[in-house]
Sequence to fold (395 residues):
Amino acid sequence: MNNPDTEVSVPFASAPAASGAAHVEAPVAYDGILLASFGGPEGQEDVIPFLRNVTRGRGIPDERLEEVATHYRHFGGVSPINAQNRELKRALEAELARRGLDLPVYWGNRNWAPYLDEAVTQADREGRRTLLAISTSAYSSFSSCRQYREDFARVLIDNDLGDRMTIDKVRQFFDHPGFVQPFIDGVEAAIRAYLGDGIPTDTVQVLFSTHSVPMQDAQRSGPRDVDWGEGGAYAAQHLAVAEAVMADIATRLPEAGDVAWKLVYQSRSGPASQPWLEPDINDVIEALPAAGVQAIAIVPLGFVSDHMEVLWDLDNEAKDTAERVGIRAVRTPTPGVDPAYVAGLVDLVEERLRGTPAAERPHRTPLGPWFDVCRPGCCENVRAGFKPAAAGLAP
Fold:
């Protein structure tokens, strides 16, 4: 049933998901959770090999990789992401146990140890055959969704597990209340602090920041039969979540109703000739004094935890820009292991265990609840085209 050469709607899927329905509304007896993440170096000697993994197939010389490596070397060659995932794994295990769910959590990365191959083959050795994956990316794009699904398919193919193991995936959780709530709390705390310092609300601005992606990739994010606008589903999802956050702030802090906000982008890479999503956060900050802005709250809306892009690009570069132009800046927290976020992830697991109808699934924006089974042609890789992918209809 799971051989990619046979005619199935959804390769490597559990029986209820294999039909290709957008939302799986039948219970699935999963026997393990696969926590999938990006990975990161854990020492100076790991940095260049890690960056080679990230950029494999692009022919980027080590001299250019060393330019990016300086960000990691600033922190001793250690990315925070692996430690954060260990903490998240423990938090998920504790929440699963609290709910009486006997589901082991296997953690694997795309670009550094522990690799996804190790996690999936360990699950196989332990007799776990029906996995439900949670990736540490909330939004729709090639690198944040489809690439993980291609990773799952590759691991099953390379390790000859496609005939006895299935991997489904929880829906993209950008607008699940558990993911959104920590951002609401952070923005509220930041604005309250500025109000307490006597800063007028009409001189405060909230900058919702996420990782920029090439425009061609952004335009291919999400189902292709929907006109998402210039930035595809990726930009539309971020905008919808930012609107939900600010709507809650207006309710909690009526006096903050005139606080302006904007979606901005960060961490751009690649040649200058290639269009990426804009505006860049630093360009926006530099223009704010002329608009009378005195203080900003930088919200890492695109990140689930304090990744290197948060610690370097926001806590260093963006804050340095704000200081240089004379604007106060605070960076609000990422979800990390916030209890609401962890509980929300386990809610997503229970959603699939029970086959919860889509109409009963919580979501904070009109775009949700997102799909359990990705639609054909969703989030194509412009450079490489389509490869076999789990948890979605074949293109």
User: Anything to note?
Assistant: Confidence is low (pLDDT under 50) at residues 1-6. The longest helix spans residues 232-252.
